[in-house]
Design goal:
The protein is mostly helical. Helix content is 57%, strand content 0%. It has two domains: 83 residues, no CATH class; 119 residues, Up-down Bundle (immunoglobulin/albumin-binding domain-like). It has eight helices and no strands. Helix 1 packs across helix 2 and helix 5 packs antiparallel against helix 7. The N and C termini lie far apart (47 Å).
């Protein structure tokens, strides 16, 4: 824990100094964006959750000149800001998307694109659906699409670890999505099938397919 407190304290002090220096040249409070891949916490970065907890406690209890805020909250508060388009980059090898798009896994993307287009089609064809079973199926389609799009599968294939499992997960989710898509379009929804596949991966219980509208 001593190391976690030292690391959190160092990060805290560096951000305090960075914000103080930037403020001298700005007419509004600067914003420092700190994005982290959630799967790092407790996985690759074992002490990550404890570090984050200690950091938040320091920000709350210690004397500092900054507060935590989300990007959208900052924009709401300071809407007159410069618009920019960052260059594409990632935390993957070489700093771009080669980990998730290379000869070992590129075949997956055409299936993901088709499913993504079909999900938008479903949302626009059945906006704010009132039928309980059809809405259940539509939400499950959205769930299966997100599961198929998980970057972990392509990452696993690239690194050659548990490749068969990753390929099976992609195939399963795309297969379920496609079957549901066809059932919805033909108005032949199998409610037991919808419920059974939800039980296999009961994630995003509050998902709303209309986010694809």
């Amino acid at each position: 824990m001593d190391s976690i407190y030292k690391q959190a304290g160092h990060f805290f002090d560096c951000r305090q100094e960075q914000i103080t220096n930037l403020s001298k040249a700005m007419d509004k409070p600067p914003i420092i964006l700190c994005p982290y891949d959630a799967e790092l916490y407790g996985h690759w970065w074992y002490e990550g959750p404890d570090w984050l907890y200690v950091l938040f406690k320091k920000i709350y209890y210690d004397k500092c000149d900054f507060k935590l805020i989300t990007p959208s909250e900052y924009i709401d508060r300071y809407p007159s800001i410069q618009v920019s388009t960052p260059c594409r980059s990632s935390w993957g090898a070489n700093g771009y998307s080669g980990v998730w798009l290379n000869p070992t896994n590129d075949y997956v993307h055409r299936h993901l694109h088709v499913a993504g287009d079909r999900m938008v089609e479903l949302a626009k064809t059945y906006p704010n659906e009132k039928s309980r079973i059809k809405k259940l199926a539509l939400n499950q389609c959205a769930r299966e699409l997100l599961l198929a799009q998980s970057s972990d599968w392509l990452f696993i294939i690239t690194n050659g670890t548990m490749v068969d499992y990753a390929k099976k997960r992609i195939k399963d989710h795309i297969g379920r999505f496609t079957k549901l898509y066809e059932q919805i379009k033909s108005d032949t929804i199998d409610e037991e099938f919808v419920k059974s596949i939800y039980k296999k991966d009961p994630i995003f219980p509050e998902i709303d397919y209309m986010i694809y509208y």
